Amino acid sequence: MAGAGIAGALVLGLAACGGDSSPEAEDGVVTITVNGLPPETQTIDRQNFEDDIAAFEDAHPDIRIDAREGLMDPETFSAKLAGGQLEDVFYVYFTDPAGLIQRGQAADITDYLDDVPWVADVRPELREVFEDGEGRVYGLPTGNYSMGLLYNRELFRQAGLDPDAPPATWEEVREAADAIAGLGDDTVGFADYSKNNQGGWHLTAWIYSMGGLVAEETDDGWRAAFNDEAGRSALQTLHDMRWTDDSMGTRQLLEIADVQRMMGSGQLGMYLAGPDNIPTIVKQFEQKYDDYGLTAMPGSATLGGGDGFMFNPDASPAEIEAGLAWIQWKYLNPDREEEKTIASVEADIPIGLPQPDLWSGEAQEVVDAVHQEYANVPVENYEPFVTRSPEVETLVEPPNAQQIYTVLDGVMQAVLTEEDADFDQLLSEAEDRVNGILATVE
Questions:
Q1: Which homologous superfamily is 6-137+305-332 in?
Q2: What whole-number distance in Å separates Cα of residue 312 and Cα of residue 53?
Q3: First and final C-alpha spacing in the chain
Q4: Which of 204, 304, 354, 371 could cysteine-pair with 146, CB 3.0–4.6 Å?
């Protein structure tokens, strides 16, 4: 997201970096490869991306974008880099930068940022994801999320609960879930995932919320950290809601589609989710935005993540500056926020959800003003999320997250399907397996 005001400064910078003499420049035009182009099956998204390229190139006549499909694949990344096939500007998740920086697989862009508009207003905690221990910068964030508690406001009312004062602790979640389940008619108070790595993903969020960690880095490398009081507290709360209160229903081994369907049918009171789940439920199940609320994760911390872009370590100065121009123009530009927002409203895309939340300072004021003017969803329903989120620490996924989630799936499944599950045994066995996975982290 960004305006064309950057064009002049960056074009001058490109010329100063060598212009025609640079191997990637022809007739003074720098061509950069970038990934993230939506596949042809996503017709609208791909057309929007291509339209952005055309508009960007009109505003930056000395830069051409060679867009490629695909994102960052950890399994093939090193081979692409070694074979000279890695894009000049490549997409990453927040779990990727630390390892890429440590292995020297991304370019240091620190010295190119001074003339890039708005970068200083990106939230510091998001910028830090792309920094090394000395504060050198290797990329920029372009999106973020954190997990919260999504709830059915109408079921809250029917159960005698205040939908404008949703739970802030797990004790309050348990009480609310019990009240909602008491409505009968197959109504479930709270549901959670437990298979296809989604159980491990959510169990990680539970452990974070209880003040624990799933993995921690030591002088000797990474090790599992969930076999502790926080891990046991998470399992105990899940067990009690499932077996003592019966507020989670009898159907288990759920995944995201199952839980969204329950929420969309009006049979579910609460589940853990990011803001992006709300439009999915509304559109897929023909529901109303007014019926759903969102609050921050109960407890002290939540699982969050995001994405951004980094630069090929072999990229030239001209390519880095051109890449920064593209990222800033397309993804990080409050100057284009109104233009993009109007287009989103016309396309029936929700405006007013509390995330992505990239900005601080003046940029945040600009974006907030635009979203307030064009909001097409009930922003007051998400005020509990906005108000309490600053009190909840956001932690990213552990290394080798998907492998770890496979292990933790089994823990989640056992607690939700076996009333007499042995927490200590489950955590101990999972700890051994996860330590084996973490031993491979470079």
A1: Periplasmic binding protein-like II (3.40.190.10)
A2: 20
A3: 35
A4: 304
